[in-house]
Amino acid sequence: MSDFLDQIEQAVPALRRYARALTRNLDLADDLVQDCLERAISRRSLFRPRGPVRPWLFTILLNLFRNSLRSERRHGTAVGLDDLATEPATPAPQHGHMELAELARAIQSLPPEQKEALLLIALEGFSYNEAAKILGIPQGTLMSRLGRARTTLRASNGNSSEPRLRTVK
Amino acid sequence: MSAPMTREMLMAFADGQLSPADSAAVRIYLETHADAAAEVALLQRQRDAIATLYAPAAAEPVPARLRVQRLAAEQSRHHNVRVRWAAAAIILVGLGLGAGWFGRAYLDRSPSANDQLMASAVYAHNIFVAEKRHAVEVVAAEQDHLVSWLSNRLATPIGTPDLTGEGFFLVGGRLLPGDPKTGRAAQIMYENAAAERVTVYITAAVRGQGDVYENARFDQTEALFWTNPFITCTVVGTLPDAQMKTIGRAVYQQLTALEEANKPPERQG
Question: What range(s) does the PhyR sigma2 domain occupy (chain A) (predicted)?
């Protein structure tokens, strides 16, 4: 049983990372993760998954995220200026700051279903099969979402004709 | 793999989703197809950029409210309210305390602070009983120093109950930061011949709180908790129920006797 809790514990940093990338808001992200953990813990005796714990946690987190988007649409949510505070202060040297900021904006303006899919693959390193299960969609749908997301990102970089991120050194 | 490479295939390659054989085939293809190679490089750079933007969040220290052990301890408390009160009643009878005291305890309890204390005690227990060389800060050989040091730091006289009657010997103790509400905590650790350990987690009393007695079980770990006007105390261990209760009773009686002896005159009555 506590082995199960250990597995949940090990997933917490990744859940925070994913939630932060989805919401762009530290407090909102940690609220989602807390809700997710509470649900997972409360289900551990009756509803624990037969398979690995990590994808199951991401499924719970995504459901909560979608619910929060729905209630946001209903009630409206003030978006704080702090959103920008989650930008990394010092981006890695191989990327120009402008490019990163632009990419961040492009990711945030992706339709939610594309953003969810892209981040599961590119940030969390799930396999296509796992990600498709987490999202509850066929693998082909997942891949087309990924493809569309990446085309959008490329276009937003002003480089749609030339498929290359400029590297500013 | 001699057919023209689909965009999906290139994307799967960039995402590291292909089998070793398929990956090798794509790599060979890329050597002679500059467009495809540029596409793959772009996809990989997008991945790198996403990691640069968002990966650092996972390296941050996890805040207390997201600690799984703590959440589980709190939840198990809430799920076990009825069981808990039944068990508390049994222990109170064992302690030779009357129902009036019990009723007062019920009315005066302040759940949030107590939840937090029990969760912290269980959390601290799980961390330090696993330690071999660094289980305690001050070892049992320096018991007098341990008692005066912890009493000073908690600004309330505490003791190290003698549990040799229960087969447990003092390992030592340590000072812990505790919670903002309750301040510093002392953790005292005991061990028996079978190397089973119990800890006693003591803080100064929570202001404005009367006597409370509660217990909670979290997985294998049981926490027996009480407060009085001087201290809060949580006895934590993974021993069978009956043994936990015996130890809890011994700790309670000795610490209560100590407080009676140290009771300042104005608090009498």
Answer: 8-61
